[in-house]
Amino acid sequence: MTTAVEPGHIENVLIHFDDLDAMGVLHNGRYVLLLERALAAYWSERGWPFDPATPHFADIFFVVREFAITYHVPIAAVGPIGVHFWLDRVGTTSLVYGFRVLSADRSVIHAEGRRVQVKIDPATLRPAPIGADVRDACAVLLK
């Protein structure tokens, strides 16, 4: 018997009271932050913190080019949720993430979407090639 394994990683993120809107559901703008927090935690835990004091800072100088999301089921409570993310593509200068925001028990998909990031040179702010070390680190997330 085989079991399908989902590509990517699921990072647990907390929803706080101040993330909810006036109707008591997670504000639509907070989904961007949930993904950002999940990605930051994932990469930091693997030795890639977004810290200008680190020697590899220029290697991970990415900006968001595109963010698209589809909302399915509102989140109406505080507490933990799962952010499942993976890489659909690693290009010359860009990363294309897919993601899903899941209930804590992983049974409900609250939202899903994609995020495109472009590696830029910190001095010129122009697109720059993604280095081999970053490509190697990304390999485990590829779908």
TrEMBL record:
<feature type="domain" description="Thioesterase">
    <location>
        <begin position="23"/>
        <end position="107"/>
    </location>
</feature>
<protein>
    <submittedName>
        <fullName>Thioesterase</fullName>
    </submittedName>
</protein>
<dbReference type="InterPro" id="IPR029069">
    <property type="entry name" value="HotDog_dom_sf"/>
</dbReference>
<dbReference type="InterPro" id="IPR006683">
    <property type="entry name" value="Thioestr_dom"/>
</dbReference>
<dbReference type="Pfam" id="PF03061">
    <property type="entry name" value="4HBT"/>
</dbReference>
